[in-house]
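Re-run with default settings, no changes from the original entry. Doing this only to confirm the output is reproducible before filing.
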Amino acid sequence: MERMFLYGTLCHLPLLARVLDRPAETLETCPARLPDHALLLARGEGFPLILPAPGAQASGLLLSELTAGDLARLDYYEGGHGFRRDEVTVETGQGPVAAGIYVHDRSGAAELGAPWEFGLWRARWADLVTEAAGEVMLGYPDRPPELNARRYRMMLARAGSTLRARAPGPASLRKPTRPGDIVETGRAQPYANFFAVEEYTFRHARFDGGMSDEMVRAAFLTGDAATVLPYDPARDAVLLIEQFRAGPYARGDSQLWSVEAIAGLIDPGESPEETVRREALEEAGIALGALHRCYGYYPSPGAKAEYIYSFVGEADLGAEAGGLGGLATEGEDIRAHVVPFARAMELVETGEIGNAPLILSLLWLARHRETTLCPA
């Protein structure tokens, strides 16, 4: 059996249990310290580096009774972030103990941030990182850990989607989901890059009270997205954006530029409201005022896990609104149009607007603009 000195994110026992695929109560841990070392946040990352610092002490956990399989899983998880195993002697309540440790090759001062604060990380990121670890370890042992590192931000975004999805939802007409309604016997990820495809083997409860036969279904995984339609009540005008889209191109559409609402993937740790405010600045250079929630929906629940939050945002769409925008670093080439609300509805009728989030937002606005946004 082996021992490891853990510090930083792996001191969060639910995360450690997810990585090891073991119940948290079976983990043999005790507090430990590494003298003359300090934990500093890796700049631009959500984890700390451990570095020599005379007189300091790096606090962590001593994890004991590790099998070769446990170490292989830890090596896989940590290897994706560039960590390798080394040996140290740590202080415990029972005296000095030899243990393994994960160290990072990056140690230049230019790459270091503030001192690591476990409490701050746990409050904001622990649930997200723990959920993302499930997708990381889904690739063990076949997927190269370096690929996990390249995809990690997208994994965090999908983890955020999962956490939001767990909020209780209404079930007044539809069948309420209860424990035991889904019996999953297998899960695989046959494709994983920026996006991913997961395949599930399961049985589900039937309306007649029985269980279905075992079936295999696949879903295309992205993170959740948020859209916003800027609306100027004083001018009764909306801002629409236009850009080339790969979807119409892949379908063979005769028109490859799409008229849409402002939209973007919800970044890790971000709320849908924060997303649309950020995207409005990036794509159209406008600041939004009050936000009005339209709908939340799955655009294609039979095949995609994507969930979209749509808003109408009040904005001043004066002479300076519109024109070219988008982030060059993301390859965006966006043109913004300010048009009267009536003109936007004409574009829906002719089919020139064929984008579902924009259509839904315009229909919401048609229903509410005189009572909610332009009250008498």
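Residues 180-221 form one domain. The chain has a mean pLDDT of 91.
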